[in-house]
User: Which sequence fits this backbone?
């Protein structure tokens, strides 16, 4: 050992004075090292994964098409029912509108009874707006 490691003990003066010790293989040599890849088969192949995924996606699209058909059928049914009921609802709304107009004219006549020459329900400005379906509703009531 060197002086620096064995403090206070006289030893060799240089590292070169140490005896040469060389590692050598054991008698008969080292055992051979296997360097070939031996990976275990740990799962399905890429083609199998792709096939399963394609089958799942295909089944999903099939279910979507089936659901779309059912949704279209129910939407057509709702549309047909609405088309049947629509004239009745429209007639009710027209009657409500005419009743509202009548009440409005009565209120206007009551408020403006002291104004000479005032005609209830007559427009005060010149415009071309027509209430929705008022003429049709009047014809249906006759």
Assistant:
């Amino acid at each position: 050992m060197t002086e620096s490691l064995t403090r206070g003990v006289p030893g060799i003066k240089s590292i070169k004075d140490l005896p040469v010790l060389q590692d050598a293989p054991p008698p008969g040599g080292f055992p051979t090292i296997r360097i070939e890849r031996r990976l275990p088969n740990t799962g399905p192949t890429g083609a199998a994964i792709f096939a399963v995924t394609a089958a799942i996606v295909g089944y999903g699209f099939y279910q979507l098409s089936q659901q779309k058909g059912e949704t279209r059928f129910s939407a057509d049914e709702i549309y047909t029912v609405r088309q049947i009921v629509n004239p009745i609802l429209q007639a009710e709304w027209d009657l409500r509108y005419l009743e509202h107009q009548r009440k409005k004219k009565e209120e206007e006549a009551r408020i403006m009874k002291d104004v000479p020459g005032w005609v209830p329900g007559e427009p005060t400005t010149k415009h071309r707006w027509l209430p929705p379906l008022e003429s049709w509703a009047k014809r249906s009531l006759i």
Notes: Residues 29 and 35 are 18 Å apart (CA to CA). The mean pLDDT is 82. The helical segments are 46-111, 134-141.
